[in-house]
Write a structure and sequence with these properties.
Layout (H helix, E strand, L loop, with lengths): L10 H27 L3 H9 L4 H8 L4 H10 L10 H16 L1 H12 L4 H14 L5 H27 L2 H12 L11 H34 L2 H18 L5 H39 L4 H12 L7 H45 L1
Helix pairs in contact: 1-2, 1-3, 1-5, 2-5, 6-7, 7-8, 8-9, 8-10, 9-10, 10-11, 10-12, 11-12, 12-13, 12-14, 13-14
């Protein structure tokens, strides 16, 4: 009969303590995972953070020599420890990472709750959490509850803003009810009322801006300030587009008068630029002593503009034309003399023939 192995002193106590610690860690892990399954991530993390911190405890208990330890416990008939639920610990660790990613939003949510922030701010914080933390269903429930309360306030705030003709408040409320992310249905009468009030007030504000622009346009036209006029016309178009306005006729007349003048000035500038270009072309022809026909054509084109040809250019042109005309006449005289000489020679030859 084999002799029983004598149990080492203190081994039983150590084995029992280790097994108990593993049981406690697994029990806490099960509770944390249960919280996570129900969407209570913060509660799971709070439980895990209690002393001793659960993940630190798991790290200490999850020894790499667990197989040898279990063999030793079996040999000496000591309490064998349960295996640490590593998969649960990994899931809990992932919950920590998610909580860290949402830390700013959670802090804002807690701040608004503690500080009793306005419903719109609290709702904004919950909406962001509901969008980013879809694993926690209660954020959606919180959003539903806050939206119901917010819609009650919105109706009253909209009525007050419309009565006070506060365009800033009306636009703020309109932006809120038009934003994406509402789970509740916006009551049918809130948005149209805000839209109508915003349109009316925008029109009034727009007309006031156009009146100021019309005054500046009259001054720009009187002062013949082309650059200022172009800026004012651009501003006019921007105001018309922004407020979707149909301008009053008297203001429209001021704008049309300025636009007509700007159009005429622009056309004149284009003509001036072309006149300058044509003048430069004539100057180039003069410099190379181009043929008379080319010079006369370029000069005729230049005279077709409603601008005065510069004196120096006109003088150089006339001088060159006179020279070319004189040269042409001299060439013609030379031809005539040559023809006369040829005729005299022929006549002399004929006389000689007849004499013989």
């Amino acid at each position: 009969m084999p002799r029983p192995i004598k149990r080492a002193a203190g081994l039983a106590e150590l084995a029992a303590a280790y097994a108990t610690a593993c049981d406690e860690a697994n029990a806490r892990l099960r509770r944390c995972i249960d919280y996570l399954r129900r969407g209570f991530r913060s509660e799971a993390i709070n439980l895990a953070e209690m002393h001793p911190k659960l993940l630190e405890m798991v790290a200490a208990l999850d020894i790499p020599e667990i197989d040898q330890w279990e063999h030793l416990c079996a040999m000496y008939e000591c309490a064998r420890p349960p295996r640490i639920a590593i998969e649960s610990a990994a899931e809990l660790n992932e919950a920590y990472a998610q909580e860290q990613e949402l830390a700013d939003l959670l802090a804002e949510h807690r701040f608004q709750a503690v500080a009793r922030g306005t419903l719109d701010l609290r709702l904004a914080a919950v909406r962001q959490l509901a969008a980013r933390d879809r694993a926690c269903a209660f954020w959606g429930e919180d959003q539903d509850a806050l939206e119901r309360l917010r819609l009650v306030d919105l109706r009253q705030e909209a009525a007050t803003a419309i009565k006070a003709r506060s365009l800033g408040d009306i636009e703020r409320l309109l932006k809120e009810v038009s934003a994406a992310g509402w789970r509740a249905t916006i009551p049918w009468d809130i948005k149209p009322a805000l839209d109508n009030a915003a349109w009316t007030l925008h029109a009034e504000v727009g007309v006031v801006e156009l009146q100021k622009l019309a005054e500046q346009m009259r001054a720009a036209l009187q002062g013949r300030s082309h650059g200022k006029a172009v800026q004012l016309l651009a501003k006019w178009r921007e105001v018309i587009t922004r407020y979707q306005l149909e301008p009053p006729q008297e203001l429209l007349d001021d704008m049309l008068a300025l636009r007509q003048w700007v159009t005429e000035v622009d056309a004149q500038n284009v003509q001036q630029a072309e006149f300058t270009q044509r003048g430069a072309a004539l100057r180039a022809l003069i410099d190379v002593r181009a043929p008379e026909e080319e010079l006369r054509h370029a000069h005729q084109v230049l005279k077709g503009f409603d601008f005065t040809i510069p004196d120096d250019l006109e003088w150089d042109y006339q001088r060159l034309i006179k020279e070319l005309v004189r040269q042409r006449k001299m060439e013609q005289y030379g031809i005539y003399a040559l023809v006369a000489l040829v005729l005299l020679v022929l006549l002399g030859a004929l006389v000689m023939i007849f004499r013989h």
